[in-house]
Design a protein that fits this description.
Elements (H helix, E strand, L loop, with lengths): L10 E5 L5 H5 L10 E2 L2 E2 H12 L3 E4 L6 H11 L5 E6 L7 H10 L6 E6 L2 E2 L3 E4 L3 H5 L8 H9 L3 E5 L12 H17 L1
Parallel strand pairs: 1-4, 1-5, 6-9
Antiparallel strand pairs: 2-3, 5-8, 6-7, 6-8
Helix pairs in contact: 2-4
């Protein structure tokens, strides 16, 4: 299903401010977002999917101390957005169709939407525009988990089933990067 260009869509916030400490602690070198993956980088693949989705987007790479701080800064920078999809930059295999599916789910009377792959929750998590104040007030390393938890308890989160392993394939270790490389090769050979 295509997105209706006449309506307003949430902005994809690509989080790229992290220091990649877990990646380096696990033996990785350099920035995990700039690590080579196929013919591009981890972040390059993530941004390619975002661009292909056709959704508006914002790259938050200002080096904030925590994920909550990054989300808050990005929401404030895009304050008149119709909502937000929070996408960590280290999810290089997420599919454009998944981004579109989460965006469409926000059109329903829900305040948040989260993709699920084979029973596992993933990213991006979508938030409706009325979550602006709560998201803009975030700080620290928890990200949007407290906001999502409160919305889940209120029954205001849509579960979006997707056939996209990319929503749960984040790059926190060199082993995860090697696994993503194998998944990418399999995807490209199947295309």
């Amino acid at each position: 299903m295509e997105l209706d260009p006449a309506s307003r869509f949430p902005t994809v916030i690509v989080l790229a401010s992290g220091r990649g400490e877990r990646f380096r602690a696990a033996g990785g070198t350099g920035s995990k977002l700039q690590a080579a993956l196929g013919a591009s980088t981890v972040l390059g693949h993530t941004l390619a999917a975002v661009r292909a989705s056709g959704l508006p987007w914002h790259l938050e790479d200002a080096g904030h101390p925590g994920m909550g701080d990054s989300i808050a800064a990005a929401v404030r920078a895009t304050a008149d957005a119709a909502g937000w999809l929070i996408l960590p930059g280290d999810l290089p295999l997420v599919r454009p169709a998944t981004l579109s599916a989460v965006a469409r789910a926000l059109a329903a009377p829900v305040r948040a939407a989260q993709p699920h792959y084979r029973g596992e929750r993933g990213h991006p998590v979508g938030f409706a525009a009325d979550c602006r104040e709560a998201l803009a007030a975030l700080g620290g390393n928890q990200g949007a988990a407290p906001v999502l938890r409160a919305l889940r308890e209120a029954g205001a989160v849509a579960q979006v089933e997707v056939d996209d392993i990319g929503i749960v394939t984040d790059i926190d270790t060199p082993e995860a990067l090697a696994r993503a490389e194998l998944l990418l090769k399999a995807r490209l050979s199947a295309a």
